[in-house]
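Below is how a single chain appears once it has passed through the pipeline. First comes the sequence as given, then the structure the pipeline wrote out for it. We keep one example in the README because the format questions we get most often are answered faster by looking than by reading.
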Amino acid sequence: MTALPGRTARERSTGDRAKAAAGLMAGWVALLWLLEVVDTMTGHALDGFGIEPRRAAELLDVVPASFVHFGFGHIASNSVPLLVLGFLAALGGLRRFAAVAATIIVADGLGVWLVSPEHSNTAGASGLVFGLFGYLLVRGFVDRRVLDMAVGLVVAAVWGSSILLGLSPANTSVSWQGHLFGLVAGVAAAFAFRRRGSLS
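Resulting structure:
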């Protein structure tokens, strides 16, 4: 009886990264849903963690705002793209992903704080979603990795039209400012945390 060969170290490493990335994003999205359940049960007490622009005290909400949503429909619209785009981004390493996500969340929140209309309240993971889209779109070209280039092109094909719609100031049902700053922050993060590879 011939024994089947074991997995190579590279195969084990890839599988471990995929499991870690999947676990991270499943936990992240589950946390968002749990927070929305708590928000609903407390009469939307967590909505106060959204960002109201140009008030000094609201700077404390720059990070929490990315984890709060205005109802289950709001969180449902963000869950699938966050799960998929986050998983693809986290495959490159959890520490790198943490740095990228933190950069997007903080830069996006500060942008919203600076330019959103008076008397608005902005919250939700869509800024991070747009940021991860921008990051994945250019990461392969910045890192010079063919596989990541292909991933970026697939991401553009699947989500490109909805991203463009979300950036339109005419779409008053969403914070186009949050989407725009998230996208720009994601592209910037691809350069800030680039990892040089070979074209292969």
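Residues 25 and 112 are 24 Å apart (CA to CA).

See the next section for the split statistics.
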